[in-house]
Amino acid sequence: MNALRKWLFAGLLTIVPLAITVWVLDWIIGILDQTLLILPAAWQPDRLLGFHLPGFGVLLALLILLVVGAITSNFVGKKLVKWGDAVLGRIPVVRSIYSSVKQVSDTLFSESGNAFRTAVLIQWPREGVWSIGFVTGSPGGDVATYLREDFLSVYVPTTPNPTGGYFVMLRRSDCIELDMSVDEALKYIVSMGVVVPVGPTRPAPSSLTA
Question: Where are its TM segments located (predicted)?
Fold first, then answer.
């Protein structure tokens, strides 16, 4: 009986990650294959090949991203983007949605951005309870006028779904920078502490060992 249980759990540990990975990839490819609908019917891969082969939408999406990136990287393209931003910024409902999404995307995907570049250890949600967060920047705007000390903006993700979480502003002295990459920290959070980052560890500060 113990052997059967051992084999069952071994099978689950092998099959479940593979099944979830295949399901996620199939979902992503299925969504990206919808980009093929912009092609004329005569150019559809299914018609040209005579059978359905998933994945052509991924290639088309990458091609579109590369073309758009090449166009918007030059002088004329940047002018067009600014003109488009100005037009969308004058539409009442669209303005609030577009500006918010653009600010977030610029922060996350910009090469000069600092969002989610550093994992920190903080006491959250109360003193004595430790959580991992990601530094997203420094408080700005009117908030900065009230926080006169050195504060950091920190995003604290939830487990196991890191897309939900809390935005907090903490003193820099209360944030301990971790010697791990953002990917390692995310895996640690998503796995609920099961997948422990492997690497050199530094001696713990005296404040933590006391």
Answer: 7-29, 49-72
